[in-house]
Automatic annotation (TrEMBL):
Protein name: Thiamine-phosphate pyrophosphorylase
Keywords tagged on the record: Thiamine biosynthesis
UniProt entry tagged with the keyword Amino-acid biosynthesis: no
Record CDD domains: TMP_TenI
Organism for this UniProt entry: Anaeromicropila populeti
Length: 195
């Protein structure tokens, strides 16, 4: 089975022009891009999403929006990534129109997300990461426990690199999410090929 890589965006981490970096990432054929730019909304977010969407045209990469299902609906991008809490609160507003991924931080959340119709879950954070400096990682045992107890695809997030990607696959994950490593990479296409 082809192990999948999801790119989670954070333009503030880019050392170079963000759209130039996104083009290079998309050229590396990640399975999905999750546009997660929490500080943007309205027209600015829509403009950025449309620019990334155009870069994905003709590629195998799917585009998901993080949390903002209203923008996703306006742009007719019917794929969304939600926190577990938002998934539970807004479920009636997103079904049956959207394909939904859900971020989970416990086995109970993963099981409930599955029972409520999530397409996949993202479990984290697995390794130490600068994005969660004050929180200890949950580790590979946590990831394995979720993978063993749900039937939908589980993606690892948090500190994933080319050096530990194999470990998350061995723990049962369908793939992993990369943010910092792709946003900061000098050659993200090469990084994706190495993974």
């Amino acid at each position: 089975m082809d192990k999948k890589i999801i790119c989670v965006t954070n333009r503030k981490l880019c050392k170079k022009d963000f759209l130039f970096q996104m083009k290079k990432i998309i050229d590396g054929n990640p399975d999905r891009i999750i546009v997660r730019e929490k500080d943007l909304s309205g027209e600015k977010l829509e403009e950025l999403v449309l620019q990334i969407y155009r870069l994905c045209q003709g590629k195998r990469t799917s585009l998901y929006l993080h949390s903002d299902f209203e923008t996703a609906r306006r742009l007719e991008i019917m794929k969304i990534q939600l926190s577990f809490q938002l998934f539970k609160e807004k479920r009636d507003l997103i079904y049956p129109d959207f394909q939904v991924g859900v971020s989970v931080h416990s086995l109970e959340e993963a099981k409930e997300a599955e029972s409520l119709g999530a397409e996949y879950v993202i479990a984290g954070h697995i390794f130490e990461t600068s994005c969660k400096q004050n929180l200890p990682p949950r580790g590979l045992g946590f990831l394995n426990e979720i993978c063993q107890n749900v039937s939908l695809p589980v993606f690892a997030i948090g500190g994933i690199s080319k050096d530990n990607f194999t470990k998350v696959i061995e723990a049962g994950a369908a793939g992993a999410c990369l943010m910092s490593s792709l946003m900061e990479a000098d050659n993200p296409k090469e990084l994706l090929n190495q993974i």
